[in-house]
Amino acid sequence: MNDERALVETLTEVEKEALRVFLLKSEVKEAARVLNRHPSTIEQRLKRARRKLGVRRSIDAALMLGRVEAALYGSPVYASSDIAAEPEIAPETALAEEDSRRLALPFPTRGRPWNDSSIWFRIIAVLAGMFLATVSALLAGALFEQIDRIVRQYL
Questions:
Q1: Residue 24, burial from CB neighbour count under 10 angstroms (0-12, 13-18, 19+)
Q2: Which positions ≥6 away from 140 have C-beta within 8 Å?
Q3: Terminal Cα-to-Cα distance of the chain (whole angstroms)
Q4: Which residues, 6+ apart, have CB-to-CB distance to 43 below 8 Å?
Q5: Backbone dihedral region of 77: left (phi > 0), alpha (psi from -120 to 50 degrees) or beta?
């Protein structure tokens, strides 16, 4: 623990702030929004913090900071801040909101868990997408051909 404390003491205040918000939000874009900074700025701060703490992942660095601050102050510094003071939502309401906003895609997307659709559903979804793209291209070609014919007729 003393080793972690010594490493955490090497961090600047902005790096600690980025780690605290990252621990709450778990996404660089969300942390950047909360801190009113560009995501690349937050990513640079997280990168410097990871390098100083000797870890590969930002979440590991944030957890290390949380452990050290909990040992020093009795609770993490951010536990009573405005960032953590978002309104409480009942778990069932939060799940319903998340499900209503989430698209059921046949492949994983960044920041989302792996889709649990079967392999056959994914294959069919990809093939259907390819079919629709092909039909759209053919229809667009036919439309442009008709427009070209009309334009040549009047020129």
A1: buried
A2: none
A3: 83
A4: 28
A5: alpha
122, burial (CB in 10 Å: exposed 0-12, middle 13-18, buried 19+): middle
Write down the pTM of the prediction: 0.48
Label residue 111 left, alpha or beta by phi (over 0 means left) and psi (-120 to 50 means alpha).
Answer: left
Alpha helices in 12-106 (DSSP H): 13-25, 28-35, 39-53, 58-73, 91-101
Task: Quickly tell me which residue has 């918000």 as its tokens.
Answer: 21
> Cα separation of 107 and 115, whole Å?
6
Which amino acid would we find at residue 6? A
Reported as a single tens digit per residue, the pLDDT across 60-102 is 888 888 888 877 666 555 554 555 445 454 545 544 555 555 5
Helix H or strand E segment including 149: helix 119-154
How open is the CA angle 76-77-82, to the nearest 5 degrees?
Answer: 115
Closest alpha carbon to 62 in 75, 52, 74, 49: 49
Residue carrying the six token digits 């404390």: 5
